[in-house]
Design a protein that fits this description.
Number of helices: 10
Oligomer: single chain
Distance between the termini: 22 Å
Largest sheet: 6 strands, mixed
Number of strands: 11
Number of domains: 1
Strand order of the largest sheet: 5-4-6-3-11-10
CATH class: Alpha Beta
Shape: globular
CATH superfamily: ComB-like
Bound molecules: (2R)-3-sulfolactic acid
Strand content: 15-25%
CATH topology: putative 2-phosphosulfolactate phosphatase
Length: about 250
C-alpha cells in the first residue's frame, strides 16, 4: 500500500473524475468528519455532503420532511435557517436517528467532493482512527490518499495530525514491508503525530482553526470530543456519490 497525504483539496493531483487512488480518507478533525462519525454512530440514516448550498437546497427539498435535517457551517458558525451547526455534540440520537443529514461546511464537504470518484471513500477523525485503520487493512488498497480538509486551501495542523495517527495504525497492523511512502507529506504527518500523540487536545487548541473556534465562544466540549483517540467504532463510507453511511 502506497501512502499519500494531501493538506487540502487543491493539492490533490489529476482529474477528479479519474482519481489515481484505490481508496481515499477525508479528514476534518475540527469538526466535520468528527460530526459525521458521531451522527452515524447515533443513528442518522446517512449524511449527504455538499460543497455548495444551491445543490444542498435542491436535494433537501426533494427529501421527506420528517426524515431530513440541514446541517451547515461557514467560518465556524451555524448557517442561518439550518437545523444544526457543525458540532459533534449536537448530533445526538434524539435529534438525528433515522434522518438524512444534508450537510455543507467550509472545508470538509469540499474535500469530500474532491475525492467523490475514488472507489473506496471513508472519513476519519481521531475518535474513529482504529476503526478506519482496521477497514483499510481489510481493503488493502494499492494507493491510499489521506486528504486533510485544511482551511480555505491552506494547511491545517489537526487534519495532518490525524493523518499521521492513521498512518501509525497502518504501520502497526500491516505486514512488514507492505507499506510504502507515496510522498513526503505522509512521513511528515507521522512525525507530527509522534510529536503530539500524548496531548492531542493541546494540538487542536493551538492550531489556527482551534484558536478561531475559541475566539467564537466556548467550544471546550467540542475540543474534548474531537481529540478523543479511538473508541468510536464507526467507519463512514461513501455509499453513493456524495452520501455517507455505515456499510
Ligand atoms: O471547515 C469545515 O468544514 C468545518 O469543519 C469547520 S468548523 O469546525 O465547523 O468550524
Amino acid at each position: 500500500m502506497q501512502l499519500f497525504v494531501f493538506h487540502a483539496a487543491g493539492d490533490v493531483p489529476g482529474d477528479p473524475q479519474a482519481p489515481q487512488a484505490d481508496a481515499g480518507v477525508v479528514i476534518d478533525v475540527l469538526r466535520a468528519t468528527t460530526t459525521i462519525a458521531w451522527a452515524l454512530h447515533n443513528g442518522a440514516g446517512s449524511v449527504a455532503a455538499f460543497a455548495d448550498l444551491g445543490s444542498l437546497a435542491e436535494a433537501w427539498s426533494a427529501w421527506p420532511e420528517d426524515r431530513r435535517l440541514r446541517l451547515g457551517e461557514r467560518g465556524g458558525q451555524r448557517l442561518e435557517g439550518f437545523d444544526l451547526g457543525n458540532s459533534p455534540l449536537a448530533v445526538s440520537a434524539d435529534v438525528v436517528a433515522g434522518k438524512r443529514l444534508f450537510m455543507s461546511t467550509t472545508n470538509g464537504t469540499r474535500a469530500l467532493n474532491r475525492l467523490q470518484a475514488v472507489p473506496l471513500l471513508l472519513t476519519a477523525c481521531l475518535p474513529n482512527r482504529a476503526a478506519v485503520v482496521k477497514r483499510l487493512l481489510q481493503a488493502n488498497p494499492d494507493r491510499l490518499w489521506l486528504l486533510g480538509s485544511g482551511w480555505e486551501g491552506a494547511f491545517s495542523l489537526e487534519d495532518t495530525l490525524a493523518a499521521g495517527a492513521v498512518i501509525e495504525g497502518l504501520l502497526a497492523g500491516a505486514p512488514a514491508g507492505s507499506l510504502e511512502w507515496g510522498n513526503d507529506e505522509a512521513l511528515a504527518a507521522l512525525a507530527l503525530w509522534q510529536q503530539w500523540r500524548e496531548r492531542p487536545e493541546e494540538a487542536l487548541r493551538q492550531a489556527s482553526h482551534g484558536r478561531r473556534l475559541q475566539r467564537l465562544g466556548d467550544h471546550d466540549a467540542d475540543f474534548r470530543c474531537c481529540s478523543q483517540v479511538d473508541g468510536l467504532d464507526v467507519v463512514p463510507v461513501q455509499t453513493e456519490p456524495g452520501v455517507l453511511g455505515l456499510a
